[in-house]
Amino acid sequence: MGINILGTGSYVPDQTFTNDDFTRFVETNDEWIRTRTGICERRMAGWEPVWYMGTQAALKAIEASGIDPSEIGLVISTTVTGDFLTPSTASIIQDKIGAKNASAFDLNAACSGFVYALDTARRFLETEPSMKYVLVTANEALSRFTDFTDRGSCILFGDGAAAVIVERSDKMFTSHLGSDGSGANVLFARSLMPAPEVAVESDFEDNFPEMSLNKLYQNGKEVYKFAVAALPKAFELAAEKIGVTKEEIDWFIPHQANIRIIETAAKKLGVSMDKFVVTLDHYGNTSSASIPLALDEAVRSGKVKKGDKIALIGFGAGLTYGGIVMEY
Ligand code: UT7
After folding, report:
1. pLDDT tens by residue, 208-226
2. Does residue 176 carry a catalytic annotation?
3. Cα separation of 315 and 305, whole Å?
4. Chain segment 102-146, per-residue pLDDT in tens
5. Alpha helices, DSSP H only, in 98-186?
6. Catalytic one of 19, 111, 139, 154
């Protein structure tokens, strides 16, 4: 059983941060950021809540789908930057959009979150016949825990949200999800300081005593190495399950982390960059929101059309990765 994406939607905050804006905080320059990452600008949420961004994206996806929100059976929200530890962002969005018959939960698989959530949505639709539609909404405000003193990471991230409404269908669908937790300490952000007596282990505190509460730590080189291998691997492991080939894919929509990661992976796969959707230049890395943001943009611009075969490929903290190959 596959799924049909009925409608997509997205929302980004108004405030734009150019590469030059970072020269106010750290020693950097536009040329370095453009050539090493492909990023020119990104959006910043300020104090705009994550649930608000997700709600706006969800409303647009609902409008594009032409459904009544009361027909949504499940809301899955992906975020690493929820406004609350509890309740979930999904519960708030469920109320704001009037999805009064839906269950709701958050899913955190970092930048792979959207791929994990779409795969989860399909599984719910397969096993719960009374469920008609699932809303997957990816909402992130990475600026909340960006370390603006670290020039190696602060220039990468942006804020935004995007959503899809899906229903069951007999369209082609295959997926593969993976995780390598031994890499958990190369990309992390703490939410709560542990009591001193329990802070004993740890790959985290002992090795990174300088890390402050609530800020993102990234070992860029290690994450880069993981990413250039994970991107082609996630696609291949998903595709080989049903024998779909890279030549059959109309559009590759990868997590938008660094243009050099995408170019290296494209080369490894032997696929032209023309087949990759890239939004990195204007949105930067928006974690789990980056794939659906790129999908929504590609759908609305007429690039991705019904019947196209698309590959959605995520990778990120965890270290997690995941690939979905499906008919749009
Ligand atoms: O969602 C997944 C999360 N993250 C990723 O996928 C990120 C993966 N990693 C990367 O994209 C890259 O590793 C970075 C973009 C983070 C860094 O690029 P790099 O080519 O690996 O640079 P580097 O860390 O090797 O640094 C090269 C030089 C260093 O200077 P020295 O030691 O050679 O003098 C850095 O200090 O560039 C310097 N540098 C900068 N210079 C200007 C690092 N950041 C900056 C900066 N502006 N913003």
Report:
1. 555 556 789 899 999 999 9
2. no
3. 25
4. 999 999 999 999 999 999 999 999 999 999 999 999 999 999 999
5. 113-127, 151-154
6. 111
Sheet holding 320-327: strands in order across? 173-179, 320-327, 309-316, 251-254
Whether 282 sits among the annotated catalytic residues: the reply is no
> Sign of the CA dihedral 59, 61, 63, 67?
negative
Q: Which of 19, 108, 255, 258 is catalytic?
A: 255
Cα Rg, the chain, nearest whole Å:
19
Q: Is 215 helix (H, G, I), strand (E, B) or coil?
A: coil
- Given a contact cutoff of 8 angstroms between Cβ atoms, the answer to whether 133 and 6 are in contact is yes
Cis-peptide, bond into residue 142, ω within 30° of zero: no
Beta strand 251-254 with 309-316 is parallel
Distance of alpha carbon 324 from alpha carbon 115, whole angstroms: 7
Let me know how long the chain is: 328
| Cβ atoms within 10 Å, residue 20 | 13
Q: Which residues line ligand 1 (CB under 6 A)?
A: 28, 32-33, 36-37, 111, 151-152, 155, 187, 218, 220-221, 223-224, 227, 257-258, 261, 285, 316
Query: 32 is written with which tokens?
Result: 């370095």
Pick from 60, 6, 285, 9: nearest CA to 153: 285
Q: How far apart are CA 310 and CA 322, in angstroms?
A: 14
Nearest to 109 by CA among 50, 184, 220, 163: 184
Classify residue 185 as exposed, middle or buried by CB count within 10 Å of its CB (0-12, 13-18, 19+).
middle
Closest alpha carbon to 161 in 77, 71, 266 = 77
Report the pLDDT value the prediction gives residue 65, as an integer from 0 to 100. Answer: 98
Is pLDDT above 90 for 41?
yes
Strand order of the β-sheet with 2-11 is 2-11, 159-169, 133-141, 72-78, 103-107
